[in-house]
Every structure is written in C-alpha cells, then in structure tokens.
Write a structure and sequence with these properties.
Structural class: mainly beta
Helix content: under 10%
Shape: globular
Largest sheet: 5 strands, antiparallel
Strand content: over 45%
C-alpha cells in the first residue's frame, strides 16, 4: 500500500448464541473479534483506530493495528469519538468514566474535567478537538471553576462564553476570543472593547488579526492594534498576503459621504471603489491584489485597482473557491456565464501595476460599474 493511503477496513457480524460477535479485518486480514466495535479511519495514512465495547467484563478500550493501546481502557465508561490530525499522524479520543471527562491523545491520558465542549473556528465545522501544525492536541474543557483552553498539557482560563477558537497554520499557535478578551498562545490580552470575531493568523503564524464589533462599528485589529481611522465594511472580508507582510479589507472612511463611499484598505491605506469589494485575493508573490465589485449577478473584476473584466457570476451568493481562484502561475481563474454557456477566464496582472502602484494616483482608480 502506498504511503498516504488509508488502510482498508471491513466489519462482519456473526450471531453466536444470544450475543453478537464482530470480526474486524484490516486489509483482508482478521485483527480482532469482539462484541461491538466502531472504526475510525484517518484522512491519510494507515493508522486506523477501533473503539471496542466489551460486555464481559464491561468496559471499552482502543485498538490500533490489532493491539490494545495501553492506558486507553475505561470500565465501565465511554470512548465516544476520535479526531485525527490532518496529516493522519496524531489522534485524540474523547473519554468519560463515572467521575470525569478527559482526552486520550497519542497514547497519553489528559487531565480530568467535568466536560469537554465543542469549539468553533471561522469557516470550519464545529468540533471538540483539533491539532496544531506541530501535532499538539487542542480542546475546550470545563470544571466548576469555569472553562479552559487546553493546548497539550497547558491550560488557560477562558471567560464564561468563548466565541471562536482558531489554530495557526504553523507551529503551535492558538487563539480564542471572547467579550473583551483575546487568548493568544496561552496569554490573556484585553481586547479594545467588543467581541473579537473572524480570528485569523497570517500564513507564517507570526501575525494575527480579527474584526472587532463594538456597537455596530467594525474595526480591524492587527497584532493587537486597531487599524484606524477606516472601519471595516464587512467583518469577514479581510485577507493576509501569502508573504504575511500585507493585509487588505473592504472599508469605509470615518465620515462617509454616502452609501457608495466605500473602498479597499491595504496596510491602512485607502482607495475608493464606490461599492463593497468582495473576494479580495493576493497573487502568490504578494505583489498584486484582485477584487470583485458585484451588482446583482453582474460583476466587474479589478486587478491592482484597474478594471480588467466585466461578466455575469454563476450564483447570486457570489463566487465560491471553485469559481474564483489563483493558479500556481499567479493568474486568477474566474468563471462567468452568458445566456448559453460558461466561460473560465484566466487573468494575469499587468507588470505595470502592483499593490505599490495602487495608491499612486488620485482616489477612484477603480471605475464604477
């Protein structure tokens, strides 16, 4: 079997007397027989996990590769679920006995708590555990004293209601936001009012940003510093450049003169666009910035503030990643439609423009639709 492919698992059940018996086969070879079993397969790799429920004596335990994992036994108790790291090399099992709940991760039992709860990351499905890029387990636990963010063996107290938890793309960076508070890599910081939302690390993991909604006014906060005087038009619409040196978002000046007094802010500099800028996208070399202006299904695509394409989008909800994306060469691929067909355009930024030239002219570089 090639590296990176999951092992093949099959389960067959036979009736023996008054109780069921389950045989588990891995790649066609029998590895165990038990009363009841749940199988979990990683996204890549060959580390399949079986949670085995034994009737006599009552209890549960974990099996990897046909062998019982030492320390995983609970009896009576519950092994309820398994989460794998994206590379398939690490695992965490949610466990409970009569006294407490805990996590069993990579062969090691964690501290006991009253409960293990879910956490939510922007754009991701809610889950009860995750892994940092270096394979450290992350979860939210609760006791009578409150909630805790647990990263490996380290725990940090959280406010009663935590809004978001996000794991960095490299290293062991983790952040959690709550009203007036941001927990970043185990250190509690005061947030400048409001609730941090849409938490995001830069690609190199060295910078951090979020949208701060304070009584309806949305401010971008980067590395703990509010980016003023421009407010965010939409809290979700900010993006780091691939080299982590730049940040762009749809914004408004402090005293807008009308609904069309909207623009793009790049590193706290403003250029007027006359309407919301969507799908802000840097090229892989971080030298160019695309965005879309939409009016219903009609759209206009801009590169470094210059209009480059007019078209009709395929959905009223806007562009999904399958219909607007950057290819490895740095060209933007965008899907448009007309009355009879769909066309995918490839747009390469001009060498005469860049994010450095975006603010070189007067405001209003982007033409209105």
């Amino acid at each position: 079997m090639e590296r990176g492919q999951p092992a093949s698992f099959y389960k067959a059940q036979f009736l023996g007397g008054s109780r069921g018996v389950v045989d588990v086969l891995q790649d066609g070879k029998p590895v165990m027989r038990t009363n009841s079993v749940r199988l979990f397969i990683p996204p890549v790799g060959k580390m399949g996990i079986a949670l085995v429920d034994r009737k006599t004596p009552p209890g549960m335990f974990m099996v990897i590769g046909g062998k019982v994992v030492p320390g995983s036994e609970v009896g009576p108790g519950q092994l309820s679920d398994v989460v794998f790291s994206p590379d398939g090399k690490h695992y965490a099992v949610r466990c409970a006995n009569r006294q407490a709940a805990y996590i069993f991760a990579d062969g090691k039992k964690g501290a006991e708590y009253q409960g293990i709860g879910n956490f939510q990351s922007p754009g991701a499905r809610s889950t009860w555990a995750g892994f940092t890029a270096d394979g450290t387990v992350v979860y939210i636990a609760s006791t009578g004293a409150g909630n805790f963010l647990v990263v490996g063996d380290e725990e940090t107290a959280l406010p009663p209601v935590s809004v978001e938890t996000v794991i960095g793309p490299v290293g062991s960076h983790v952040a959690a936001g709550a009203t007036g508070v941001l927990v970043l890599d185990g250190k509690v910081q005061k947030s400048p009012g409001g609730v941090p939302a849409f938490l995001k690390f830069s690609p190199d993991g060295l910078h951090f940003a979020y949208a701060l909604n304070n009584r309806g006014a949305i401010t971008l906060v980067r590395d703990g510093v509010p980016q003023s005087p421009y407010g965010m038009f939409s809290g979700a619409s900010f993006v780091f450049s691939p080299d982590s040196k730049h940040i762009a978002y749809s914004c408004r000046p402090p005293n807008p003169t009308g609904n069309d007094d909207v623009g793009v802010c790049l590193d706290n500099k403003y250029v007027r666009t006359g309407g919301p800028a969507e799908n802000l996208t840097f090229t892989p070399d971080s030298n160019h910035l695309f965005w879309v202006r939409r009016l219903g299904l009609k759209f206009r695509l801009f590169a470094d503030g210059k209009p480059v394409l007019d078209g009709t989008s395929t959905a009223s909800a806007g562009f999904r990643k399958e219909t607007l994306q950057i290819d490895p060469s740095g060209a933007l691929l965008i899907l448009s439609q007309d009355a009879t067909s769909f066309t995918r355009f490839s747009i390469t930024p001009s060498p005469e423009t860049s994010i450095a030239t975006l603010f070189g002219g007067a405001p209003g570089l982007a033409a209105k639709p």
